[in-house]
């Protein structure tokens, strides 16, 4: 980019160039092509400090871009003259926009770069690709086992081209850089179908792009593949044998709730059963299951779709998330009318799901009637078995274990070797607590007892909360204290 020049012409003169960018692109970005030579291209801009737009134009022209500042009034005048000229041509040159977009998005090096990023992320087992534009470069980071690692850096021009390519692949508006956009990409790579959810958010230096990767392997996971402890797996299987009622999975974003729900659906799927899901977004496509995408912009909300789903004669309904009172009411009504309903909530633990439903206006007697069980889940990194080593616990760590009636003699630590990319960890494993409703618990819930009272009843039954299960994984050498402290609230 060169220094900003000042336009010394009147607004009556349109442009020195015989060609022009597509007018829709000009209007969206307030830019006009003024002159192009072998050495440089001059553009008229209302905002000549728009680095991202200059980077994109630099990539498109493959030469130096000289911005010339013009006022909004001058831009509107010139654009109006161009639009009048375009109308007089009766549609001639209408393919300019397609050619313009194709040159950027289908540029072979850009296509290869985007494909290689996705392939590299898949081979490394990454769940997300983050591409973020900063002042002088763009950082590409992969989320591996829940932690972000920077993998490479791109020039700002290359970032602009990658952003354009991804928008075209997702069917988004390539010209929109001021508003957030979300889309979905499905690709066939090395014989595997890959579903991707892509998010674009404008930031001060350009855009932040996040690509969430969903593979058919994840969608195909069985309950036995999730890494649940034996009692958790048996409990889930028992809950899924109920012909009707409500089963909830709780936890923060990224805790594996959706993967668990998909594994449940796979277990429940059979030819004689109709399963319908209402999701936002659909993270994996499952054969033989009717999946519906929420689309608030056109009135397809969770509650409006649920009303219609109930007329579709389903046996089992999965609702991606209970977000509001109307959805909570419909989920409970569906469970009361002979359907098995699976859904998620955002709560810190399993028993808090009862309070969350109460706060959403669900009557306590209805909760007691329909709720079959609640799982609360977290994901922590699993220690690499090839390089794990042990250390003496600190005094405060010994005190923590004593407070829960246990003793600890040693604690595992991550080493680092070639097999785990020198991180000390390989994969992740779930920590799960569960509450299964029985007559006594249902009576407490139906009477409107506080969650603290219900929790005391669970503790009397040797209930294993998240922190106890987490500490158990540490003592057996599966993960570290540092990992569980990131995900689980430990007693003080």
From TrEMBL:
PROSITE patterns: T2SP_E
One MF annotation (Gene Ontology) recorded for this entry: ATP hydrolysis activity
Domain Bacterial type II secretion system protein E residue range list: 310-324
Similarity comment: family membership: Belongs to the GSP E family.
Pfam families in UniProt: MshEN (PF05157), T2SSE (PF00437)
InterPro entries in alphabetical order: P-loop_NTPase (IPR027417), T2SS/T4SS_dom (IPR001482), T2SS_GspE_N (IPR007831)
Record-given protein name: Type II secretion system protein E
GO cellular component, as recorded: plasma membrane
Organism of derivation: Winmispira thermophila (strain ATCC 700085 / DSM 6578 / Z-1203)
Keywords, sorted A to Z: ATP-binding, Nucleotide-binding
Keyword hit for Cell inner membrane: no
